[in-house]
Amino acid sequence: MKTIIRLFVLAIFICGFTFSGCSGIETNYGTIAGAVFYSDDTTRVGGGWVRVLDSTGSTIVAETAVDEQARYFIALPEGEYIVMGATSQTGDYTGSGDTVGIFAHETTRYYFAIMFDPPE
Q1: What pLDDT, in 10s, does the model give residues 105-120?
Q2: pTM for the whole structure
Q3: Would you state the CATH architecture of domain 29-113?
């Protein structure tokens, strides 16, 4: 009986929380999408990785693999970030060091080159 009462109270709480407009889901997210190139600015880094750091460059906020055409897509809270890339997840990450702005409900396009030559 205690279990049924607890479930009932939990259900009422969840319904009230949801219908009150407080869903607990962040709504101030935006996205960043683009592609990663080698230093020649034409050869894509297919199979590479993208790492997103906070605006100070001290904390990794997100990282993802790029597809075979070197494209990536990451959802982030609104704010300023530094985006870097590498040829592998454990490789040396490089980038321009520029700060990229992410805005709520928008996609920021950011294409950049890593500081490595394309493979022969």
Answers
A1: 999 999 999 999 998 8
A2: 0.75
A3: Sandwich (2.60)
Tell me the domain boundaries of the chain.
29-113
What is the pLDDT of the chain when averaged over all its residues? 85
Query: To which residue do tokens 């990451």 refer?
Result: 74
Buried/exposed code over 77-98 (b: 16+ C-beta within 10 A; e: otherwise):
eebebbbbbbbeeeeebbbeee
Q: Which of 52, 65, 59 is nearest to 98 (CA)?
A: 52
Using one digit for the tens of pLDDT, what is the confidence trace for 77-109? Answer: 999 999 999 999 999 999 988 899 999 999 999
Residue that is written with structure tokens 């959802």 in the block = 75
Q: Is 66 exposed, middle or buried (0-12, 13-18, 19+ CB in 10 A)?
A: buried
